[in-house]
Amino acid sequence: MQIKLCEGCGQQFQPRPQTPNQAYCSQPTCQKVRRLRWQINKRKNDPDYADNQWRAQQAWRTRNADYWKNYRATHPDYVEQNRKNQRGRRKQDHLSQGKEIAKMDASKPLPTVPSGTYKMNLMSVSDIANMDVWIVELRVIEYSRTG
Q1: 28-53 pLDDT, tens per residue?
Q2: Are 98 and 122 in contact, with CB atoms under 8 Å apart?
Q3: Are strands 118-122 and 136-140 parallel, antiparallel or unpaired?
Q4: Global pTM?
Q5: Residue spans of beta strands (DSSP E) within 8-129
Q6: Residues 6, 18: contact at Cβ < 8 Å?
Q7: C-alpha dihedral, 100 to 104 to 108 to 112, nearest 10°
Q8: Could you give the 3-state DSSP secondary structure of residue 139?
Q9: What's the sign of the alpha-carbon dihedral 40, 43, 46, 48?
Q10: Which of 67 and 133 is assigned the larger pLDDT?
Q11: Overall average pLDDT of the 127-134 stretch
Q12: How far is residue 80's CA from residue 86's CA, in Å, rounded to a whole number?
């Protein structure tokens, strides 16, 4: 019989005769890895499957709208650990990109805009996270002054 190395744990195993291309041993953790990798690949390569998964998740979130609120209320250790991890991720991400961490009520000073008359146009706000932010486009209106 042929001996193979498991793609999950790296240990040797003997594939079942019915599945000669078996790549994972029968350990539950390795089978979990196999299913997860299959699902990731399926989502990436099958738009119908990905759409169905997305719709199922949306439906679950609708039915269980308070799930995370309740979970956090009953698992304070999880909340604290998540806060610590998130701070570390933000700091590491911003440091690696040479950025400072953004604050909702602070902004860096921009170059001075010359005084003059401007026209304001409403811009798309669909990709803005803050609902109380106005995005405007300023354009200098050129006109001649005749006396």
Answers
A1: 999 999 999 999 999 999 999 999 99
A2: no
A3: antiparallel
A4: 0.48
A5: 12-13, 118-122
A6: no
A7: 160
A8: strand
A9: positive
A10: 67
A11: 54
A12: 10
